[in-house]
């Protein structure tokens, strides 16, 4: 690092040296990020699903207080601590969805979810249980979100503290998950190009893709990297940053902004930094959006509708989540841990659709 670069770096937030700063090439050599459920924990989930079916409780109002998990509950709290305060992700395996109906799988997933945090609406329809599958749409449509296509997503964050994905059916080919530490990207940019990191610490517009809260602009304006309380939190979706340029009053990206975003993407795509994983039926992936960018490769589906790639998704707001800078309320609606994140538009009501 040259003396001039070093002086510039000295004016930036410091490197983050906690466990969220990892390199995928190292993690690929270990398996301690995988958690396998045991039969007693699975039995608790199955019992919970049966009790909820008998009670006819509206699942949209489900909370952890409605169902007890004496064995699995404490383990889920340890897993959540790893997600929020450790490396930022966990892969839970061994859910026996092959012996469950879709309703049972969804209910078990919801039970796990509410023991991690409150459920947040994921779209303008108020869906608390998301369905990640190809709907035959294209990201060229400014009202389409990329999870509704079979295209590559590129590395990004979701608008919540923690995202959970349950694999019901993998793709015929492709659809691999890629995770990368945004903390590591922050550190690498600080070392290599502190001038470009400074650009991403400034506010930038991101398209809401047609899901606009009352009295809000059709885009939000939040820096990619946000330093607050000694932590760096990241919010990022390159395609939506670019599509926000369609709105009046939003300036074209500058040459320096493009260079900074290009470096971020280059680092995210570096196989030394990212970690690739293939989902199997019954896998649950938990990701901390503030320290992890996630991606999905393009995929090819089976022709049979019942075999098409299908993931269930939850957006979660844990009460023990980190403090966020004030500007996050523009996207998260609130900065209160346990009651923030999601999509909030006029007329939306929380709902759960299993199909």
Key phrases:
3-stranded antiparallel beta sheet, 7-stranded mixed beta sheet, globular, 355 residues, alpha+beta, 28% helix
Can you offer a commentary on this structure?
The protein is α+β, with helices and mostly antiparallel strands. The chain has ten helices and 16 strands. Strands 1, 2, 3, 4, 5, 13 and 16 form a seven-stranded mixed sheet that branches. A hairpin with a 2-residue loop joins β10 (225-228) and β11. It is globular, with a radius of gyration of 20 Å. The N and C termini lie far apart (55 Å).
Order of helices and strands: HHEHHEHEEEEEHHEEEEHHEEEEEH
Helix content: 25-40%
For the biggest sheet, the summary is: 7 strands, mixed
Which whole number gives the mean pLDDT?
92
| Oligomer classification | single chain
- What class would the helix/strand composition place it in? alpha+beta
Count all strands and give the number: 16
Strand content: 15-25%
What distance lies between the first and last C-alpha atoms, to the nearest angstrom? Answer: 55 Å
User: Are there runs of 5+ residues with pLDDT below 50, and where?
Assistant: none
Number of distinct helices = 10
> Using only CA atoms, what is the Rg?
20 Å
Overall outline: globular
């Amino acid at each position: 690092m040259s003396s001039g670069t070093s002086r510039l770096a000295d004016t930036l937030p410091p490197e983050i040296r906690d466990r969220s700063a990892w390199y995928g090439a190292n993690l690929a050599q270990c398996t301690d990020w995988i958690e396998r459920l045991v039969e007693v924990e699975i039995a608790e989930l199955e019992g919970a699903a049966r009790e909820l079916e008998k009670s006819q409780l509206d699942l949209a109002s489900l909370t952890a207080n409605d169902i007890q998990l004496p064995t699995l509950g404490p383990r889920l709290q340890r897993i959540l601590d790893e997600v929020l305060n450790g490396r930022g992700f966990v892969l839970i395996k061994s859910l026996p969805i092959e012996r469950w109906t879709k309703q049972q799988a969804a209910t078990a997933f919801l039970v796990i979810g509410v023991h991690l945090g409150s459920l947040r609406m994921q779209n303008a329809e108020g869906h608390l249980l998301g369905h990640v599958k190809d709907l035959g749409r294209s990201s060229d449509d400014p009202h389409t979100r990329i999870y509704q296509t079979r295209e590559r997503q590129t590395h990004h964050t979701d608008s919540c503290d923690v995202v959970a994905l349950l694999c019901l059916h993998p793709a015929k080919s492709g659809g691999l998950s890629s995770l990368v530490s945004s903390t590591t990207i922050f550190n690498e940019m600080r070392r290599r190009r502190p001038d470009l990191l400074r650009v991403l610490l400034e506010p930038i517009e991101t398209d809401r893709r047609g899901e606009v809260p009352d009295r809000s602009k059709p885009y939000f304006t939040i820096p990619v990297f946000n330093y607050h309380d000694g932590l760096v939190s990241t919010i990022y979706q390159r395609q939506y940053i670019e599509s926000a340029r369609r709105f009046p009053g939003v300036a074209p990206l500058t040459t320096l902004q493009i260079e900074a975003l290009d470096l971020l993407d280059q680092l995210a795509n570096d196989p030394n930094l990212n970690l690739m994983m293939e989902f199997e039926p019954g896998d649950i992936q938990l990701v901390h959006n503030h320290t992890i960018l996630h991606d999905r490769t393009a995929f090819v589906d089976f022709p049979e509708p019942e075999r098409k790639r299908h993931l269930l998704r939850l957006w979660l707001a844990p009460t023990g989540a980190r403090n966020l800078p004030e500007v996050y309320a523009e996207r998260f609606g609130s900065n209160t841990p346990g009651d923030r994140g999601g999509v909030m538009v006029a007329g939306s009501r929380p709902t759960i659709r299993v199909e």
